[in-house]
Amino acid sequence: MQVPAVIAAGDRRAAKAVCGESKPYLSIAGESLVERAVRVLQAVPEVSEVIVVGDAPRLEETFGAAGLAAELTKRLTIVPQFNNVYENAWESYRRLLPGAGPTGRDPASDADADQFVLYLSADLPFATPQEISAFIHQSLATGADYGLGLVTEESMTDFYPQGGKPGIRMAYFNTRQGRLRQSNLHLVRPARLGRRHRIEEMYEHRHQREVGQILKLGWRILTSEGGGATVLLFYGLMHFAGVLDRSGYRRLADWLRATIDIGRVERACGKLLDTNFRLVITEAGGCAVDIDLDEDYEIACARFEDWWPAQCRKAEAVYGPLALPAEARGEMRVMPELPASEEETT
């Protein structure tokens, strides 16, 4: 089974700049991050086509300067960005439905509602085709309508400071099954999310080391449909365990996380989104390294020549070589800038 992939490359609303630049256009090893994401997806057998949603004129200029169109094996479509990450995700889905055209269309059948879309961010310099391929396979095997990617703490240690060289230390969700980090991969049937507007709330409050963001999202969870005290309790326990872990109280964090079962977290998230939700764990780790801070970007640039070859070797050792389909010739197209669908703007 093949699925379309949507790269989130927008720079509006809650998008965050790094080193004074929109993250998709940061350069690592002479290549913009959004260009790297497109190239990686070309090698994923389960990806049928690639859609990039963002600043269309700048994306077209970036890809043109890189000569990317001549190298494509899958169709690449540039969709002009909308007001926020949720609209970007939904409107991209509307435009990839069969016969949709440049204005898109709403899902009108079970086949439309069953359409999966792979969503990922543009700022993933160490994502490998093998990890993305494995995530798609594992997500489909769950039968869920929303698969959210996680990686294990063990898979992230390669990116830690080592031998006097700088590194990036990650924040984790502390659960009974282990310390886990979100991998920035989402396999979703968008039309099967009963409360898909919650995606924007979660994205805007994603920086959960900031007390204000934690409290705001906690209040939303408590007072929202599908939320309530039970869901809030698990949210609070996970954050408290994370604070203990980051503060060096590892044994206390281990004791507390033993009460947080990943299955109950899945059910809580599914209730909030009104969908069949599952967490999907991969073990390569590169997809969990996103660029959110100036320091992270500087370290990723400095360590790229060490980390990228090592990540490629690790991904192939864990998952084996890719089973690539017969090579096809792709094309690049740019959709015109149009208003969001009436459903979402009213």
What descriptors fit this protein?
346 residues, alpha/beta, two-stranded antiparallel sheet, disordered C terminus
Topology:
Elements: E1 3-9, E2 17-18, E3 21-22, E4 27-28, E5 31-32, H1 33-42, E6 47-54, H2 56-66, E7 76-80, H3 85-96, H4 110-113, E8 117-121, H5 129-142, E9 146-152, E10 173-175, E11 178-188, H6 198-204, H7 211-223, H8 229-246, H9 250-257, H10 262-273, E12 277-282, H11 294-319, E13 332-334, H12 342-345
Parallel strand pairs: 1-6, 1-8, 6-7, 7-13, 9-12
Antiparallel strand pairs: 2-3, 4-5, 8-11, 9-11, 10-11
Walk me through the structure.
- α7 packs antiparallel against α8 (229-246) and α8 (229-246) runs antiparallel to α9.
- Helix content is 40%, strand content 18%.
- It has 346 residues and is of the alpha/beta class.
- It starts with a strand and ends with a helix.
- The strands form 3 sheets. Strands 1, 6, 7, 8, 9, 10, 11, 12 and 13 form a 9-stranded mixed beta sheet that branches.
- The model is unreliable at 342-346 (pLDDT under 50).
- The protein folds into 2 domains: 3-151 and 180-193 and 278-336, Spore Coat Polysaccharide Biosynthesis Protein SpsA, Chain A (Alpha-Beta Complex); 194-274, no CATH class.
What is this structure, in a nutshell?
The protein is of the alpha/beta class and 346 residues long.
